[in-house]
Design goal:
Converts heme B (protoheme IX) to heme O by substitution of the vinyl group on carbon 2 of heme B porphyrin ring with a hydroxyethyl farnesyl side group. One of its GO terms (molecular function) is protoheme IX farnesyltransferase activity. Belongs to the UbiA prenyltransferase family. Protoheme IX farnesyltransferase subfamily. The protein is mainly α. It has two domains: about 1-170, UbiA prenyltransferase (Tetracycline Repressor, domain 2, Orthogonal Bundle), CATH 1.10.357; about 175-310. The protein has 16 helices and no strands. It has helices at about 5-10, 15-25, 25-40, 50-75, 75-80, 95-115, 120-145, 150, 155-170, 175-195, 200-205, 210, 215-235, 245-265, 270-275, 280-305. About 50% of the residues are buried.
Length: about 300
């Protein structure tokens, strides 16, 4: 039995505030908050600032609930992976049952309060998102298929759609495009991480694409998804949420994203190992910049339009 496994078995439930905060995956939550906020703001219906603020808060809590449920279920493999071994549950600072209880209560509170604060369409989408991440992705896809990230990426793509529903009470082609931006971005983003963290996934028995099909195929798939993402991202410029500001940013960001993926595909594995996967790490970091900058451009475009400047 490993020390980490022993820690889980002897967890006293005396974790500090920071440990319970870490259960909510705050870095992931920040992405949820930002994309959901953009979804609210770019929608064609104005929302009272207080309603918008509390709605985003409850969407964030729903994202945190998903993180806690994920850490509860995955604590066995988290002990094996270097990247996750110091998380509160595998490190023994929080008992698995506490993580489960926190996740379930936050799920109930976030969905109920979002429904009361905005509307039940948004609340229903949030409930489905939590279920999809905790059950479909974490409990099923992650340990079963190398397409885990592809299909499971839907969970991270729902927040802007939920934000749009907060404002409009429904779903439209624009909110579907916002969903698609995150959904198609997710595989290149996580597969770039998997290229230089492959040993973790191998040791934990997680069937990431790098484990089941090798790094060469993973590099190819990164390029394919980046190339498929580009026309969707650029095409959003020609909808009601687009315009010249977003189009300019989308052309630059997607050209760089696709070109980087092409260079990764053509990269020799011996070279990658020799420089400790520097290019893969750089592409992973840029993928974060890509998504943040894309949604910032949508936000800037919406501000431009709402101040009466016009879309083009």
């Amino acid at each position: 039995m490993t020390d980490a496994t022993q820690n889980i078995g002897t967890a006293t439930g005396e974790g500090q505030f920071g440990d319970y905060w870490a259960l909510l995956k705050p870095r992931v939550m920040s992405l949820v908050v930002f994309t959901a906020a953009v979804g609210v703001f770019v929608a064609p219906v104005s929302v009272h600032p207080f309603i918008a603020m509390v709605s985003i808060l409850f969407i964030a809590l729903g994202g945190g609930a998903s993180g806690a449920l994920n850490m509860w279920y995955d604590h066995d493999i988290d002990t094996i992976m270097k990247r996750t071994a110091n998380r509160p549950v595998p490190a023994g600072r929080v008992a698995p049952g506490e993580a489960l209880t926190l996740g379930l209560w936050l799920s109930f509170i976030s969905v109920t309060m979002l429904g009361l604060a905005s509307n039940w369409v948004a609340a229903g989408l949030l409930a489905f998102t939590i279920f999809f991440y905790a059950v479909v992705y974490t409990m099923w896809l992650k340990r079963w298929t190398p397409q885990n990230i592809v299909i499971g990426g839907a969970a991270g793509a729902f927040p802007p759609m939920i934000g749009w529903a907060v404002a409009t009470g429904g779903v439209s082609i624009e909110s579907v495009l916002l969903f698609c931006l995150v959904f198609m971005w997710t595989p290149p983003h996580f597969w770039a991480l998997a290229l230089f963290m492959n040993n973790d996934y191998t040791n934990a028995g997680v069937p990431m694409l790098t484990v089941t099909h090798g790094k060469r195929e993973t590099r190819k798939q990164i390029f394919i998804y980046a190339a498929l993402l580009a026309p969707l991202a650029v095409g959003a410029a020609f909808t009601s949420i687009g315009g010249w500001i977003y189009l300019t940013a989308a052309l630059y960001l997607n050209a760089k994203f696709v070109w980087g993926a092409w260079k990764l595909w053509k990269r020799d594995e011996a070279d990658a190992e020799a420089d400790i996967y520097a290019a893969e790490k750089a592409y992973f970091r840029f993928s974060l910049v890509y998504l943040f900058a894309s949604f910032c451009a949508l936000l800037a475009q919406s501000v431009w339009v709402k101040f009466g400047m016009g879309a083009w």
